[in-house]
Amino acid sequence: MRETPPAPASHAAPANGRPSLIVTLVAAAFFMENLDGTIIATALPQMARSFDVHAVDLSIGITSYLLTLAVFIPISGWAADRFGVRNVFTAALAVFTASSVACGMTDGLVEFTAARVVQGIGGAMMVPVGRLAVLRATPKDGLMRAISIITWPGLVAPVIGPPLGGFITTYSSWRWIFYLNVPLGIIGMVLAWRFIGTETDKQKRPFDGIGFALCSIAGTAIMYAMELLGRAGAPWREALAFLAGGLVAGVAALFHLRRSAHPVVDLSAFRVKTFAVAMGGGSLFRVSISAVPFLLPLMFQLGFGMNAFHSGLLTLVVFAGNLSMKLVTTPVMRRFGFRRVLLANGVIAALSIAAMSLLTASTPLLLTAIVLFASGLSRSLQFTAVNTLSFADVPKPQMSGASTLSSTLTQMTMGMGVALGAMAMRLAAWLHGHAAQSVTPADFSLAFVLVALVGLVAIVDVFGLERDAGAHVSGHRRERA
């Protein structure tokens, strides 16, 4: 995806528009999009009772949303160039808001999943197009601050999501989780239409319909296969058929994208070693850590008997560790460098996930909180290191395509993480010799071990890095022998 370079503020917004207001507006939209990816985790048991399904089966409500984000992010840049940033961003807010109402009104799993897919389409258009609106409206000297502001919602929303979802679910109804988006969405649409510029790209590039179709089929089929494998009573043959079809479509997509003059996803950044490692082993790491926010609330509620609010407060400890690590990430990276941090901390992150398997209903809350906080610290450091390494050596002409590819894979692996959690629970139930519809604390213990093993495998890719890989970014210099 090619991003249009920032234009002077006078061309990006009306004369009475303020770049700071656009930054705030986009940050609020990012907050809504990130919040809806995590907030329903603590509400799954109550939603399962409303839909008369098993709580683990509701993982599709999370993965369908994240998968749709991954599928539609690549075309957001093309849409903004073709129809204008203001039109696309406002329409995305309208779709996201309307589908939020639909999510809250549904009474069945199929209808809810369909509404989440539509909501994901709106979210996929909001995020990259909103970032483009900020780039165009902000002067170069204020760009660093603007990007910093719109990045924070991605960190704050996961912190607020679990306890907020638990509070709403415990003292009201899970449906209000989605109705809260309505006033924010309406205000956002009004402000976006008023303050974001109307210009479009004069050099319109052709839309890669074949590439988009192949990527969509591959991603959807593989994710649906993983969903079936994690669902109680799902036919194995059907799951394997979708998996095989997804892999065939994926191979065809790779062949097409490498030969297309205007690919919907630019793969050239994979020639850069650091980017390839960050997307390979880094994606496996994201799969493992994305399973944790799905499994933890279920273990606390179904395994330990907590209510949704208390479950959300405990899950909050993990994300508190995430934010706390931000204070020391830069010194740690400067002292040890990417390779040593990714290897040592990768092992620590996997062990911290495995340690969750030792938690029981009788474990003191302080000890539980220490385990969760330690896990949050290690996963935050690993996540930041992987994301930074991704673009450490990517040339500027390839930066836009690499950013789109990274965003797509990030959303895809987050959805796969939830599916991995559901698959681990089903496998644990099978190994313990009971039906998948009923879960026990022992099932969660084994599931966390399986997820930790995936995280451990993720560091294998890192051994191929040079000892001083990305040193110009981390500030680390290899000690002389």
Automatic annotation (TrEMBL):
Bilayer topology annotation: Multi-pass membrane protein
Keywords, ordered alphabetically: Membrane, Transmembrane, Transmembrane helix
TM annotation in the entry: 21-44, 56-76, 88-110, 116-134, 146-164, 176-195, 207-226, 238-255, 275-296, 308-329, 341-359, 413-432, 444-465
Compartments, record wording: Membrane
Pfam families in alphabetical order: MFS_1
Source organism, top-level taxon: Bacteria
Organism, scientific name: Paraburkholderia bengalensis
Gene3D superfamilies reported for this sequence: MFS general substrate transporter like domains, Multidrug resistance protein D
Name of the protein described by the UniProt record: MFS transporter
InterPro entries according to UniProt: MFS (IPR011701), MFS_dom (IPR020846), MFS_trans_sf (IPR036259)
Domain named Major facilitator superfamily (MFS) profile: residues: 22-470
SUPFAM superfamilies: MFS general substrate transporter
